[in-house]
Amino acid sequence: MTDPVIPATDPVTDWATDFDLLDAEYIVDPVPVWDDLREACPMARTDRRGIRTWLPTRFDDVRALAGIVPDLSSKDPLVITLPPEFEAIDPNAANEDGLNAPPISADPPEQTWTRKMILPAFAPRAIEAHREFTENLCHELIDNLIERGECDAARDYAQQIPPRVIAHLLGFDPSMADQFVEWVRGILEIGFYDPAARVKNRQEFNIFLANEVRDRAANPCDDLISELLRMDVPEMSGQEIRVVVGICNLLVIAGIDTTWSSIGSALYHFGTHPVDRRRLAADPSLRPTAIEEMLRYYSPVTMARVAQTDVEFGDVVIREGEKVLMNFPGANHDPAAFESPEEIQIDRTRNRHLAFGSGIHRCAGSNLARLEMDVAIGAWFDRIPEFELVDPSAVTWAGGQVRGPRKLPIRWATAR
Ligand code: HEM
Asked: How far apart are CA 356 and CA 3, in angstroms?
C-alpha cells in the first residue's frame, strides 16, 4: 500500500483559534505546539472543516474531559478525529452487519456490557498465553531480514507483528494479516485524506468480518469469536452477529495501527539516540520502564468526543454538537504532571501516562499492547543490539488519529 498523498492545508497562523491536526509539521512534531498552547491557551479551538473542535493540552484537563460521560459522547462515529465530511459520506455506518465498534464507539449502558464481554480475554494471564507465539513471530521476522544489514523497520518489522497477533487471537487465517494492514490503513490513514478509500475499505472489511462471525455461529470452535458468541449476555440477545462483528472490527482496528506505531516509534527513538540504545542493550532489565517512556513520549492515539449538550469547562463552553479531542499524547508532555517531560528517561519510574486513555474507555487491550512491545523490542535488541537510522529525512509519519512512523530505514552491521 502506498503512503497517502497529504493534501496541502491552509497554513496555521494562530494555533489557539485555528489549529490544524493535518498540518504537515504538526504531524511530524506536535510537541512544540502543545507546549506553547499549554501556556497561552490550554483549550485551543478550530473551526476548520465545518465543526468547532477543541484541543486540550493540560494533563488534568484531558483526564477531566474523558470523565464527562455521556455529555461528551463516544457514540459512533464521533470518536473519530476525522473531519465531519469524511464521516457523513459513509452511508453504511450502521448497516445490519454493524460498522460500529463497541465499546469504543458506545456510551453506557452499551459500553459497559460490551467492554465486560472482552475484558477476560485481555486479562494479564490470558494475554501471557500469546507470548510464545509473539516471540516466535518476531524471531522469524528477524531471521528473514538480519542478513540484509538494513530494512524499513516500520514496514518489515513493526507493521508485521500486531496483525498476526490479532489474527492468531481472533482465530483468523494468519495469511490474512497483510490484508488486515491494508484495510486498517485504508480506513484510518489513507482514509483520513481519501473518503472514497475509507468507505471502500470499511465495506470490504465489514463483509469479511460478517462472514467470519456467521461461520463461527454455524461452526463454533475454541477461538475468541466463538467465545464471544457463546456468552450469556441478555443485552446481546437477538443481535449476536451484529455485536460480535462490531467488537471484532474494533479489536482489529484498535490493535493494529496503535501497536505498530508504538513499536516503530521505539525503534525510531533507539535508532536516533545511541546513548539510550547502548544503555538498554547493556541492561535489558530497563525494558519495562523504557517501554512506558516510549508510550508516554510518543503516545500514538488521539480520540474525539462530541458534546450532547452545552458543557461548561473552565473558561470555555463546549456547545452541543462541538467536538473535543482527547489529546492523550499532549497530556503526556505536561510539566505539571511529569518532571522534565521533554527528556526521555528510559528509567523513569513515576510515569502515570495517559497513552492508553483515561476513564471508562481506558484501553482494554493494554496488556496485549505491552506484551507485543516487550517481545518486539526484546527480540530486536537480542538479535540487533547495534543499529541506527539511515537518513532522518527519509522517515515519514502518520498522524491525526494514530501517530507513528510509516517509513523507517534502519541499518546495522552484519556478520560478514
Ligand atoms: C500501544 C498500543 C495501544 C495504544 C496506545 C492504545 C490506546 C488506546 C486508547 C487511548 C484508548 C481510549 C479510547 C477513548 O478514550 O476513546 C483505547 C481503547 C481501546 N483499546 Fe487500545 N491501544 C493500544 C493497543 C490496543 C490493542 C492491542 C487492543 C486489542 C486488540 C486494544 C483495544 C482497545 C479497546 C477494546 C478499547 C476500547 C475500550 C472501551 O471503549 O471501553 N488497544 N486504546
From this structure: 26
Q: Which three cell numbers stand for residue 201?
A: 475499505
CA-based nearest residue to 93, from 198, 238, 244: 198
Q: Which atom of ligand 1 is nearest to the CA of 115?
A: 41
Question: What is residue 191's three-state secondary structure?
Answer: helix
Residue 313 has pLDDT above 50, yes or no: yes
Q: Is the pLDDT of residue 88 over 50?
A: no
Query: DSSP string spanning 114-147?
Result: HHHHHGGGGSHHHHHTTHHHHHHHHHHHHHHHGG
Q: Is CATH 1.10.630.10 correct for 24-411?
A: yes
Q: Is the pLDDT higher at 191 or at 87?
A: 191
* 248-265: burial string, b at 16+ Cβ within 10 Å, e else: bbbbbbbbbbbbbbbbbb
Q: Which residues contact 116 (CB under 8 A, 6 or more apart)?
A: 233
Q: Which three cell numbers stand for residue 33?
A: 505546539
Name beta bridge partners: 313: 316
Ligand 1 atom nearest to 261, measured from its CA: 1
> Which protein residue has the closest C-alpha to ligand 1 atom 19?
363
Contact 277, 384 (CB under 8 A): no
Pocket residues for ligand 1 (CB within 6 Å)? 66, 74, 79, 103-104, 111, 115, 118, 166, 250-251, 254-255, 258-259, 262, 300-301, 303, 326, 328, 355-357, 361, 363-365, 368-369
At 1-35, the pLDDT tens digits run 556 555 667 889 999 999 998 888 999 999 999 99
What are the cell numbers at 74? 463516544
Domain boundaries, the chain: 24-411
Residue 338: predicted pLDDT: 98
- Give the Å distance between the CA of 256 and the centre of ligand 1: 10
Give the whole-angstrom CA distance, residue 176 versus residue 375. 22
Cα–Cα distance, 121 to 134 (Å, whole number): 16
Distance 62 CA to ligand 1 centre (A): 16
For the chain, give the percent of residues with pLDDT over 70: 92
- The protein residue with its alpha carbon nearest to ligand 1, atom 21, reads 363
